[in-house]
Amino acid sequence: MFESHFQSFEDEIDPSVGSARVVALREALSRLNLHGFLVPRADRHQNEYVARSEERLAWLSGFSGSAGLVIVLRDRAAIFVDGRYVLAVKDQVDVAIFQPVELAETSPEKWLAENVRGGERIGFDPWLHTPRQVERLMKSLSGAGAELVAVEQNPIDGLWTDRPPPPLGKISLHAKKLSGEDTKHKLGRVAAALGGKDALLISDPHCVAWTFNIRGQDVSHTPLPLCFALILKEAKPRIYADPRKFDGKARETLSRYVEIEAPGGLERDLELLGARGARVVFDAGTVPHKLVAIVKNSGGVCDIAADPIAIMKARKNPVELEGTRRAHLRDGAAVTRFLHWFSVNAPAGRLTEIDAAQALETFRRDTLELKDLSFPTIAAAGPNAAIPHYKVSVKTNRRIGKGIFLIDSGGQYEDGTTDITRTLAVGRPTAEMRDRFTRVLKGHIAIARAVFPKGVSGAQIDALARQFLWRAGLDFDHGTGHGVGSYLSVHEGPQRISKLGSATLEPGMILSDEPGYYLAGHWGIRIENLIIVEPREIAGAERDMLGFETLTLAPIDLSLVARDLLDAEEAAWLNAYHARVRREISPLVEPPVRRWLQAATKRI
Predict the structure, then answer these.
(1) CB contact at 8 A, 93 and 63
(2) What is the DSSP track for 22-51?
(3) Residue 124: predicted pLDDT
(4) Which domains, ranges and CATH numbers included, belong to the chain?
(5) From CA 531, how far away is CA 510, in angstroms rounded?
(6) Tens digit of pLDDT for each residue in 30-72?
(7) Cα 40 to the center of its chain, rounded Å
(8) Separation of alpha carbons 179 and 65, rounded Å
(9) Average of per-residue pLDDT values in the chain
């Protein structure tokens, strides 16, 4: 009945190949007089989603997560992952070859210091590491008497005989009616932010896309054009991308403001800037070590800091906010249709995780405005729901039986990017499930209702989402919320709600509100809506205050709510939220769905 256009469920990588590929890599390293090599899950821009040609970590190890690092030494290898992947990594790699290491427990630098010997040379690809990463690695290896060595040609590329070619996705314009600000005005703001600096290298393609009002098709799930750009104090900006990527309209419009250069011209232009002693600003989070070294070695001054464009992009303007509201209405209707369909079909016990993922994608595609999924749908039944970033495949596909089913999904529309998680009960949930779900819900509501002074960071409110779990001796190992772009990345910085969220929350920023709880081997819970930071008027307030507007509109499963655990204000919030969902979504869905929605959003 349903099919997927934007997500594959095939097992494309076999973990068993890891052994032979590590042997081949060690042989290549020996020829280079290297004793080890670093293989990050990264491309030249530190993107979350990378082109197939950049999946070196997956090719070597089998690991398909969006973040990770393998270190291969002559006698051992380790794979480093964060809390999202501590369970998944053990199923995706050969643990006899790759020792899984959780980043929260041991850093790559510490592991290297403990496992290398004096005099050893550890190689790295300078295009795939930032200067900050390189500095930490150099310090660690130096302390152990070893050396970090930049390798001009990544040895994996020579071993990967069937490596896909680099992408040639088309670059098109993102209209002002969607962006809310023209390119000329944006360039003026960026130039002003440069101050006395001579140039800004834009290494984050999200920032390139935002600045020049373009979108691309080079990677899955995010409409990115993979390219660099250079903003110059005394010359036209330049975009470095394969000219074949630009459609005629994009080329004609951009030519008013920018020169389009082939990718190879970037190194030349940076060397020329360095030779005249220019001061160049680089983004600390995404710039390749290679490009900083070119400027530094040719005599320039490198200012490595936060790209000023990132914060401009994070503060959505009124046009972008209206667009995302439209997208969330459209998406909410699609999700509500799915939830109705699930309520009818899941009790029979014949649905699988893939069935559910395909159905939800189909309901989104039926809007006729879906451009892509914003990430691969997490459709997880029973114990799979306890894996926060579980990825369903033909091999892991599980039948949805009685208990808990978690679905985390999102859509890319030209007017907005969505991300929603709902946890659903199939059959009668246990008292423990209802207790844990309600504690997660209380944390979700605490963030949604939060009021805080201007200048507060995400780290300062993260505990609001965890407090009710903490009281029961529980917690979750991911952030409470991430930033979200405007028809860009579903995971956008610098804003986030987490223990590491140091960026201040500002009006117009979009974030997720997604606390969770995971009982390993059994089930998992997560409730996620997107929210907008907005000014909050308070009578008699002595400071400028902020709060959140909830964007996401879809029912929360009331069968999992333990009403006695909610206080009066929490119950009032849930009732008001469901009344809004009912009011705004009902006109957009068919009568049978409308009737189901009426019951699904009843007062508690």
Answers:
(1) yes
(2) HHHHHHHHHHTT-SEEEEES--TT--SS--
(3) 98
(4) 15-159 (3.40.350.10), 172-313 (3.40.350.10), 318-592 (3.90.230.10)
(5) 6
(6) 999 999 999 999 999 999 889 999 999 999 998 888 889 999 9
(7) 16
(8) 31
(9) 95
